[in-house]
Design goal:
The protein is mainly α and about 80 residues long. About 65% of the residues lie in helices and about 0% in strands. The chain has a domain of about 40 residues. The chain has five helices and no strands. Helix 1 crosses helix 2 and helix 2 packs across helix 3. The longest helix is centred in the first third of the chain and has 13 residues.
Length: about 80
């Protein structure tokens, strides 16, 4: 990754961001994105696009957030497991 980023004059973080964008956004059309998509496809790493999914309703999302906020915090579970 470092070598590929250096060859393109970008940081590793920017290069990885571009790779992930190219792998997940078919709307990207610049030459580098097409090149990355072709490489990922050749390696069998490009996920096929499925049909678009509808966004959840606002009330459903708010309810999921409330339910996710209950229970045990991960930090407490880790702490308890170390004792």
């Amino acid at each position: 990754m470092r070598r590929a980023a250096h060859q393109r004059g970008t940081s590793v973080n920017e290069f990885l961001t571009r790779v992930l964008d190219a792998a997940t956004d078919p709307e990207l059309t610049d030459d580098e994105s097409l090149w990355v998509r072709e490489r990922l496809a050749a390696a069998g790493l490009l996920a096929p696009l499925g049909p678009p999914r509808p966004r959840p309703a606002g009330d459903d999302l708010a309810g999921a957030r409330r339910r996710a906020g209950r229970g045990h915090q991960l930090a407490n579970l880790v702490h308890d497991g170390r004792e």
